[in-house]
Design a protein that fits this description.
rod-shaped
């Protein structure tokens, strides 16, 4: 057959076409994008990475919630629960407090103040709330026991007697004074009750480092005009006692009897401290 014969050209063209198809079929498995997608390697890496990065710890993982001992007072039980984080009190709450009659009103007023004071101080060395001395003392003791469970070295500043009710019961529960339970340098001392023409006056002080750091009247004349006079005079006398550091203070104008009784009771308290 001649080289230029048409049939020869057709045969050669067909052979070339078949060879090309075979070559394409041979190369297809290694370059098929569908095969690569079915392997799923990229997706597998993305799902493993977040798991391998570790979970985030719960917020406040180092917090401790501690409940103090139940402290019995003359007006009911007091128990404190605190949350400690990083060695600090981050919250405080009274899970038990005196209730019933006057005690409910006193606790409602005193407990929020005690909670706030505990958080601010970071210890049990907090001031008693005026008019709620028993509750305050019980609160401080329960708070200290909770701190002890946390391994805290904080010390309570007191636990002196007092009342959540009337002033006269408070005085009878604390006559003779008391020494601060956890502070070696702070003492709480109660003077004698001094009778005046308008009622008894009795003073309680806290002495630290030889100085009066706090003064309060646990008894003062009350009823009618006397309540108004005491309400005006006693805060001034308390302030004067702390400022002077002695019983040498001026009488409040219009409250001569109350001032005189206050000074005598204050001096008797100072005498107990050797002042």
């Amino acid at each position: 057959m001649k080289k230029s014969h048409p049939l020869r050209r057709i045969v050669l063209a067909g052979a070339a076409t078949v060879s090309g198809i075979v070559l394409l079929l041979t190369l297809k498995p290694s370059s098929d994008p569908a095969a690569a997608s079915a392997e799923g390697t990229p997706q597998g890496q993305q799902s493993v990475a977040p798991q391998g990065s570790g979970g985030v710890q719960a917020a406040g993982g180092g917090d401790q919630t501690l409940t103090g001992d139940v402290v019995k007072t003359e007006y009911g039980n007091v128990q404190v629960r605190i949350t400690v984080s990083g060695g600090k009190i981050t919250s405080a709450a009274a899970v038990q407090a005196p209730t019933g009659g006057r005690s409910t009103e006193v606790s409602t007023n005193a407990v929020p103040k005690l909670n706030q004071a505990a958080t601010a101080a970071g210890s049990a060395d907090i001031d008693a709330v005026s008019g709620a001395t028993y509750t305050s003392g019980g609160y401080k003791k329960s708070l200290q026991s909770a701190l002890d469970k946390a391994g805290s070295s904080s010390a309570t500043g007191g636990g002196s007697g007092g009342t959540t009710g009337g002033g006269s019961a408070d005085a009878s529960g604390s006559t003779g004074g008391s020494t601060g339970g956890g502070s070696a340098q702070a003492k709480t001392l109660t003077g004698t009750a001094v009778e005046t023409d308008y009622g008894p006056v009795q003073v309680r002080i806290t002495v630290a480092g030889g100085k009066i750091t706090k003064a309060e009247a646990v008894q003062s004349p009350s009823g009618g005009r006397s309540s108004q006079i005491s309400g005006d005079a006693v805060p001034k006398l308390n302030q004067a006692a702390v400022a002077a550091g002695s019983a040498d203070i001026d009488a409040v104008s219009g409250a001569t009897y109350t001032s005189g009784g206050y000074k005598k009771s204050l001096q008797s308290a100072l005498d107990q401290a050797g002042g």
